[in-house]
Write a structure and sequence with these properties.
2% helix, Jelly Rolls, mainly beta, seven-stranded antiparallel beta sheet, 232 residues, nine-stranded mixed beta sheet, globular, 20 strands
Length: 232
Amino acid sequence: MLEVRRSLDRGYADHGWMKSYHTFSFADYYDPVYEDFGALRVINEDRIKAGKGYDNRVHRDVEILTYILSGELEHKDSLGNAALIRPGDLQCLSAGAGVTQSELNPSASESVHLLQIWIKPSAAGLPPAYERKHLELGEKRGRLRLMASPTGEDGAVRIQQDARLYIGSFNAAERAEFEVSKGRRAYAHVASGSIAVNETRLNAGDGVKVTKPGRIALVSGRDADVLIFDLP
């Protein structure tokens, strides 16, 4: 039921200005077993140096979710959006028919640590869109909070795919359960800290595929920040 992906087994790239770990195949890193997982295409853990970033990168037909762990990231795009995203922020850029994007670490001294997630959309050429949501620690403490969904219920950002992202923070006796429905699959990724999924201990950067229906329990967290993807 559970297939563990350890942090040290991920791909790695050092671009000088950015260091990145790849859970799934990305750029020059290819793993035929971890090319994708259903609609989940990318989980990259990036650290971008102060004053660095990229300009005018074009994206099409991908839902890009950016989750800030520490530091700040300045976002601009061809839709006219400009934002400074901070820890607890989840940004969603639905690239659809095409969007040009620039992202920069505006700090003069501190790196920014983030997760960039790509989800395949339900169809090609959809209208592009942008949303951003902030989640205070108390809103995800000891529970899984819905952060992205196709309908935007409970204040979630909208993604153009039948997928959902939940985020939770757990410590000590705090716990949560997640039900994987028939015909669905799930992926859990530990952004920071440590937690047990059922009886399997996962540390920062680790992930696990859940390929069969049933209930999984998140228990014995140690300052854990966890992402759960509910996927078709």
